[in-house]
Amino acid sequence: MLVKLSQEPSQDSLDAGRTPDIEDLAEETILQKRRVKEQARRLGRMIDDLVEDESRIRSAVMKMSLTDTERLVLQVIFAEETLVEGERVLVDDFGLRGGTDSIAKTLAKARRHHRKGRAPRL
Hints:
Helices cover 77% and strands 0% of the residues. The chain is built from six helices and no strands. Helix 3 runs antiparallel to helix 4 (68-79), helix 4 (68-79) crosses helix 5 and helix 4 (68-79) packs across helix 6 (100-115). 8% of the residues are buried.
C-alpha cells in the first residue's frame, strides 16, 4: 500500500502541488489500524453481551407455562427493535391473527407469570 501511495500520489496531493509525506501517511495508517482493532474488540464484547441477553430471554420464555404461539410472540417482540416491527413480523411472516391484541394478551400473561414468581425476570 505504501509503495502504491508513493508511486501514485492522491489527486488531493497533486492538486496541492506537493508529494505526500510517506512517514506521515504510514503513521496515520498505523493509528487507524489500531483504532479499528480496538473498535472490533469492543464490538465483539457487545455481540457477546447481546447473545447472552438473548439466551437469557429465551430461557425465561421457555420456563413459562405458555403455548408455542405465545412463546413465539414473546421471542419475536423481544427480538425486534420496536413493538410495531415485532407485530409486522408476527402478522406478515407467521400469520398471527389479532396483531396488537394477541401481543398484549401474551405480554399480560407473561407479566402474571413473572409476578407469581414462575419465571425469571424479563
